[in-house]
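Before anything else, study the sequence and fold tokens given here and see whether the fold suits the sequence. Record follows:
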Amino acid sequence: MAVRASLGAGGGRLVRQLLTESAILAALGAVGGVMLARLGVAMLHAIRPTDLHRLESVAIDLRVLGFTLVAAVLCTLVAGFLPAWHTARIAPGTYLKTRGSTRSGGRSRAALVVAEVALSVVLLAGAGLLIRTFGELQRMPLGFEPDQVLTVTATQPSRTREERQAYEADLVRAATSVPGVVAAGIVFPLPMNGVYERSAEYAVDGRQVDPAGWTTVYYRTVSPTYFDAMGLELRRGRHFTEQDENYEVPVVILDERLARREYPGLDPLGRTFWVRGMEGDTLQAEIVGVVEHAPQWDHRDQRPTMYFPRTFYQSHEVSVVAKVAGDPALVAPMLSESVRAADPAFPSDLVPMSQYVTDRLARSRFVLILMQIFGALALGLSAVGLYGVLSYSVRGRTKELGLRRALGAEGSALTESVVREGLRLAVVGIGVGLVGALGVGRALRAQLFEVSAADPWALAVTTAVVLTVAAAASLLPALRAASVDPVVALQEE
């Protein structure tokens, strides 16, 4: 550039040349970005949760292509015009005297690397928080063993209480008659199916007349054998019986979370529970048992549950749950045939309870995968940026490095100095990124579970990963610096 300027090339020609070079690179990058975007859209459709229906309409359209065009033009202007403007400000003689060894613009390049490293730290820290959350969700006790429970749900016609009671008893008998089925029961709604979130209000003892005393919790209507089928442990009291099904005396079973909340240190058995909101009526039920807590909506769900006999609510759906011994895949065909024999209109497709549990984790897994992808891309960009800055720096320091080698400097010392420079930029970027990571943690708080927004494990692993990548990106320029031939370097200068 200095030679061309000294031979009469004006600033406009220099700017046009750099803009042309930048435009070619930006166009290639835009085309590559669109191709990656097509793959990304296909991946989104492949991994999206079933309950995120709006993602079905996600596609590359003219607005996306227009945004890509604008981004490419802006990259062309920024990457081409600013260096040209900087070059035009300095007299050609300055460059000719230094013979290309000038290190001008180093601060701006270093600032860009710091920004790239900071961005990668923010995204990787967010991914780390979600990884920790996902692990905690998977370890969350469900109160039942989903891998050993098969379910099937059907819509049933309106029946009288006696007809429904006899019909559901036939279904339970048909299911329990299958070899390999340990226990079977009826429930509505099926827990963790992602469809129903049935709630009702309750009040304890004499607070039923105080509107402020009512509290909302989940409720389930279950057959007497449901808890055995799901493997929910009875903490105290008893299960429902056929006499409870006859609706002679309203009874209720609480989960242990609700019992501890309302009767801390006390025995809740025999106490009065006022309930309203199931069928619009208010009923007074006696507590007859306490069972293990099980989340009803998803793994994060901490809301307690109260259970009532099936006859307390006329549900339009009925779900059969069967606990099996051995391989559920071998028991499923026989179980399907048995329930169809009891009711030919009953569905034959059984769904493992583990499928519902997995589906409830799908949204968290989806967000986690996206954060991991974005974090990996940002980390790759920061590694490329760091490598580019250090490589450019080494090329600009050829004379200096050659002199140092001629004066006896060891190649390992030169390698160490370049790596140290790269790590210095990385450390600054990490410091800035950790501040941003705290903000991302607070923004992700609704997605986190049993994990702090400033989780030290996630931040420590993120720091270690970024430092490792920064050291690797610095190594190749550092080795090039160590291999500089002092004779060749001095001859070039």
